[in-house]
C-alpha cells in the first residue's frame, strides 16, 4: 500500500488504515494515492478481515474505487456555489465566509480587519453592448 502513497497523502488516514489492520477490523477510508505513472487519484478503500471457522483472521479482502471524477465534480460544484459564473470572482456567499474567517482571526490575534466593497451600478449595458468578453475585460 505504501507504494501508492506520497507526501501529501493524509497521515491520519494512513494511520487509520494501519490501526484497523493491526486490530483485525473493518476499515473504510477515502485516501489520496498515486498511480505508478505518478498521477494522483482519490481512492475509496474498504478493507475487511476474513476469518476461518475458529474466528482467526486468515487474510484481508479489499475493495477500492477510483472516485477522482466524483471529487472533481464536488470541487466544481463548490467552486460554482462560491464564484460568479460570468466573472469567476468570489460571490457574496464566499464574501460572507471570508469575512467570518477574517473576523475570527482578527479577534484571535487582536488585529483589525478592513473591507472594501465596490458596487458596479449599470454594468449590464456594458455586457449588452460589448458582450460578456468585453465586460470581463473591464473587470479584469
Automatic annotation (TrEMBL):
Pfam family, one: GGDEF
Lineage: Bacteria, Pseudomonadati, Pseudomonadota, Gammaproteobacteria, Oceanospirillales
Protein's name according to its UniProt entry: PAC domain-containing protein
Chain ranges of the PAC domain: 25-79
InterPro entries in the cross-refs: DGC-Regulatory_Protein, GGDEF_dom, Nucleotide_cyclase, PAC, PAS, PAS-assoc_C, PAS-like_dom_sf, Rev_trsase/Diguanyl_cyclase
Positions of the GGDEF domain: 111-140
Superkingdom per UniProt: Bacteria
UniProt cross-references to NCBIfam families, sorted A to Z: GGDEF, sensory_box
SMART domains tied to this protein: PAC (SM00086)
Organism in which the protein naturally occurs: Vreelandella sulfidaeris
Amino acid at each position: 500500500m505504501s507504494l501508492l502513497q506520497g507526501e501529501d497523502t493524509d497521515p491520519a488516514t494512513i494511520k487509520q488504515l494501519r490501526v484497523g489492520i493491526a486490530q483485525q477490523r473493518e476499515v473504510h477510508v477515502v485516501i489520496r494515492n498515486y498511480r505508478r505513472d505518478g498521477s494522483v487519484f482519490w481512492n475509496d478503500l474498504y478493507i475487511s478481515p476474513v476469518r476461518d471457522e475458529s474466528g482467526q483472521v486468515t487474510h484481508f479482502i479489499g475493495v477500492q474505487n477510483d472516485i477522482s471524477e466524483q471529487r472533481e465534480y464536488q470541487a466544481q460544484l463548490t467552486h460554482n456555489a462560491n464564484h460568479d459564473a460570468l466573472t469567476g470572482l468570489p460571490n457574496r456567499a464566499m464574501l460572507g465566509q471570508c469575512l467570518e474567517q477574517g473576523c475570527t482571526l482578527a479577534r484571535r490575534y487582536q488585529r483589525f480587519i478592513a473591507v472594501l466593497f465596490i458596487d458596479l451600478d449599470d454594468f449590464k449595458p456594458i455586457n449588452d453592448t460589448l458582450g460578456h468578453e468585453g465586460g470581463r475585460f473591464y473587470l479584469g
